[in-house]
Each structure stands twice: as structure tokens, then as C-alpha cells.
Amino acid sequence: MSDAASLSPGRQMVRLLLSHPSVLVGGALVLAICLIALMAPFLDTRDPNALSTSNRLKEPGYEGIMKVYTDEGRIKVPVVFRLGSDSLGRDIYSRVIYGSRVSLVVGITVASLAIAIGMIIGLVAGYVRWLDGIIMRIMDGLMAIPAILLAIAVVSVFNAGLTSVIIAIVVPEVPRVVRLVRSIVLSIREEPYVEAAITAGTRLPLLLVRHVLPNTVAPLIVQGTFIVASAIILEAILSFLGLGIPADEIPTWGNIMGTARENFQLHPHQIFYPGIILAVTVLAVNMLGDGLRDTLDPRFAKRM
Prior knowledge:
By secondary structure, the chain is mainly alpha-helical. Helix content is 66%, strand content 6%. It has a single domain (18-49, 92-303), classed as Orthogonal Bundle (MetI-like fold).
């Protein structure tokens, strides 16, 4: 018996995942970004919203003096602006580090909500025939509108903030999950074991949970990674346009770049640094998704 055959199914899957370069590289980058977000207060950062009018529009590496309020009163302390400062004297390095938290929270929350809502609707649409046409026509109507336009329309109804941004991004992502789950259900409901369960008198909720839902797990995991990447980009676009999270409340990569638009020609670093981190994050998540898609595909696993 070969070593691979002697391993448990879980260890075989882990071994297969680790053998895929996209999973290794993408997973390592995503893990590094998550660690940076969690360790933000310990990475020599300062208050990302602290203003310093005497240190406006400084270049990367500038060493200056900042007034800080303590229990003893206002004192002057030396500071280093590693990535420069913006038009209000805020430290771009600190804002970029803390901005990673918002992007990851938005991406993971949107993916979780979109999958949960889309999975329920997709299961119903795929198995209850008379509801299928009604639900899918609604989903087709939502998908006919570009995601960014639909998100702008939704966020304009609510006050600007983290919650409204998440709702605005979830709405255009749900139809994609519904279509995926529905297609899986349509192929599974004709299987002999499902028909046998129906013949045995299994109730519909139990049938969906026990026999249909497990077959959607792997595709939904892959779809979830792509939703995370899409949500991070959409949040950055909304914040860049001034329709997302206000820059004076919570720093995000999008509103950092939005604030720097007016000074882009003279100070391009204000957009370059958050932009490159945004690009690397989205690339890492997409690489992880591609690797998971290839690995969780039974045909790929069989070739391996």
C-alpha cells in the first residue's frame, strides 16, 4: 500500500492542498496580511486619525515632530513618517496598516452573508420547481445591473458607514451564489440516493440538509474566496468615490486613495502604497481561490 493510500481522507486533502503552488503562495500571503491586520497596534503605528498640520504632505521617511496629548498635557514627540503623510498630516503607514482590518472584515463578512443567503435561496430554487422560475427571474434582474452600480444605489439609501457598505456589496453577490447552488441542486436531485430518500418519506428540510447541502460545500468554499476579493475591490471603489466609509472615521485603502486624489501629481506615493497593498491582497485571495478550485475538483484530485 502506498503512503498516500494509507493516509486518512483529511490528511490526503491537506497533502493535496500543500502540493498546489497557488494554494501555498496565495495562502501564505493571505495569512501574512491577516497577521499584519491583527498585530496593527504592535507594528510601531500611531493613531491613524491623528492630525498634524505641521507635517502635511511629507515624503516617505520624513522625520518630524508631532504634538501629543497626555495626562501631563500636550508634549512634542519625534515621529518618523515611513510612508509619508497626507494633506491633513496623518501617517499613511498607520492608516494603511489599520486599513487592512476594514478590508478583511468587509471581505469575510460579505462572503459569509452572501453564501448563507444565496445557499438558502439556491436550495429552494433548485428543488421547489414552481418557485424556480420566480426566484431565478429576480436573480437575473439583479445580475443584469453592474455590481458597482447596484452597490452605489443600495449605499445611497443608507447613511455612509461600515454596515451600509457591507449590505451594498452583499446584494449584487447573492445572485451569483444562488445560480451556483441551484445548478448543483438540479444535478443532484435526480441521483438515485436522493430519489431513494424521497421514496422513504424523508421530509424536504431534512433531505436538503442531509443529502443535497454537503455536495455544495466545496464549490461554495471556492466561490467564497472570489467573493472576498470582489468585496474588497468594491469597498475600495465605494470609499474612493466618497460613498463608503468616511475617511475621518475609519481608514480604508479606498478612502486613503480617495483623499489623495487632489495631490496625486505631486505626491503619488499617497495612492501608490495603499494601491499596491490592495492589489497584492486581491491577487493573493484570487490565487488561493484558483488553487482551491483545482484541488477540490475531483478530476484534478484523480490526476494528482
